[in-house]
Amino acid sequence: MLGVVLVDKPAGVTSHDVVNVARRALGESRIGHAGTLDPFATGLLVLLVGSATRLLPHVSGDPKVYEAAIQFGAETDTEDLHGTVVRQAPLPGRAAIEAALPSLTGELDQTPPAYSAKRIGGRRAYDLAREGAAVTLAPARVRVDRWEILAWRGDESAVAGCDARVTCGGGTYIRSLARDLGRAVASAAHLTALRRTHSGAFDVSDADSLDALREGRARVRPALDALPHLPVQALSDVDLRRATSGIAVDARVDGSWAALTSEATDMLAVLAERAGDRWQPRVVLREG
């Protein structure tokens, strides 16, 4: 099996739980996801199946869109509603929040949450945090493209919370954005809800439920759907055999990378990088 499966993850399960359901339902052990969702979060989880998992480095950084509910006045150790309150502060005004958003837009050095899947000395940070260890993670460069405030809660001079839509690059922690927004307005903040609505070219409205996946009713999309931004070049049988053997073939489309498909099936066979006037195969996809 080879392709892409979109799942609308419910709250209360981990991204790895969804992968395990997919492995059982599809009878395929090679399944990975293009970006973790926290257990409390819902929304779009993009699964790559079979040899399509080789595309993960090329799609994990795709832009993502989230809808987040932010509560002001308290910061928690997990940076979400399930954590212990570690700091309280006065509620901020709406004008202060709006003025702070530009400072949290663009390229940012973001400190990940202590309760995260980041590894420290081979162990997950959240395991160390649960054991009471002091967890210090190095900041990581992330990109936030846009904030949109969808709704306000509370008075204009004392905002209890807001709903926001955030467009960002892969690897961005929305929990940490909420934390940093609270600090930027001399308050404190944490997330009470989070939903991923888009990942790359995929929309959660096109995703299957976890039950549909479990029951074998989830749609398996072509692997090519994961690379909509790349030019496509169809190969003859002769060139296809060459490319899938790692041999460069003539480039007939523009771009620095290309998706090479079979003329006979239109299926993605090779992800290739330009080398002069030829395509050098970098990722070869095979059924089975």
TrEMBL record:
Task: Tell me which residues make up the Pseudouridine synthase II N-terminal domain.
Answer: 23-174
The UniProt keyword set, sorted, is: Isomerase, tRNA processing
Entry-linked CDD domains: PseudoU_synth_EcTruB
Q: Where is the tRNA pseudouridylate synthase B C-terminal domain?
A: 175-215
Question: What residues sit in the active site?
Answer: 38 (nucleophile)
Tell me the GO BP annotations in alphabetical order.
mRNA pseudouridine synthesis; tRNA pseudouridine synthesis
Q: Give the highest taxon in the source lineage.
A: Bacteria
Q: State what protein this is by name.
A: tRNA pseudouridine synthase B
